[in-house]
Amino acid sequence: MVRIVVFLSLFIFLVVSPAYATQGHGGIEGILVHQAAHVLFALAMGFLAFRIKRDELPVRKGWRNVQYAAVLFILWNVDTVFVHFVDEQVKLVTVERLATGQLHITSPVPGLAVMYYIAKLDHLLCVPAIAFLWVGLGQLLTQAETRRKKGDAS
């Protein structure tokens, strides 16, 4: 049964519908709630990074990588709030699709189109953050297993 569900899921996602890299948010209420979630996520990551620093945990590899992930997630959230604000709330940029892979970005504010384009590359912050988190949690798990085995041996 599981194989059938996995096969059908892959078929639907890969064959039936196109995959889009961006997602719109319905109405102003949707974007406000979404923006609030970004702010809360950034605050939570700030608190995590602060606690790791305060408790002097970065001396251990796993916690250091989790702290790096938290800082990158903060930067990613700030970047994403900026992009959502200029694109969907105040509408200071206009994005026009010219062809597949070609966009024309314009803005009445000088330099904002370039800033917007660079900020839209938010995956350059989010993907490394996820990688640091993954590696850090793996290191913490390995350290915990090592301590547990030492405790079992004695």
Automatic annotation (TrEMBL):
Keywords, in A-Z order: Membrane, Signal, Transmembrane, Transmembrane helix
Stretches that traverse the bilayer: 31-50, 66-86, 121-141
Signal peptide: 1-21
Superkingdom as given in the UniProt entry: Bacteria
Name listed for the protein in its UniProt record: Uncharacterized protein
